[in-house]
What does this fold into?
Amino acid sequence: MSGRGGVVNNIFDWYIPPECQSDSSILRLTRGLSWEVAKEPIHQDIDYYAICGIGPGMSFANSILKNDPKIGVIGLVPCAVGFTNISQWSQGSLYYNEMLNRTLIALEGGGTLRALLWYQGESDTLNVEDAELYESRLQKFFTDVRNDLDAPYLPIIQVALTTTLGPYKEIIRQAQLGIQLQNVKTVDANGLKVGPDYVHLSTPAQVQLGQMLANAFLESGSDTAH
It folds into this structure.
């Protein structure tokens, strides 16, 4: 989710596709908890454990603006950290608490929480126990987030994996594609082009994924008003 598009040998090529260009109507909450005009890489001060590149966030936001110009200002709240498994995002964990805190601060200015975008799971393909527990952990994570944000109908758009770090990808995909929670949509990344590390999506694929996420968000229609 934090994006490695355009990153080769830990160097970002700084190619910003037209679909990921900055717009004054797209803001980003920085690590210092202030708003700025969003620009790629939007996770560079959040997922500082690795070199960030193009992710789906800017393509997502630009696609929404293009298709719904009256939506107003879009505030992106990047929270992703690469190479983490779902248990590291459980309720009360460091990453979970930071995500919750950033979201609550983002809403202080009177904004509306419209959706959670979730793209994770490669690390859970390494261990059979993690893979088998993924479905229950994922459902609990989504439920906890909604409860803690007092947003029981919060639209959640997750991505089903196309790549893997270990042998248990299909168990993770089945959990993602089979989730039964209300207002949870799953976008399937299967078939999107992978970058040179064979794990993260290429820049064009990240652009495409962002547009797929935007379409899923826009198709939510009145559900996003909750």
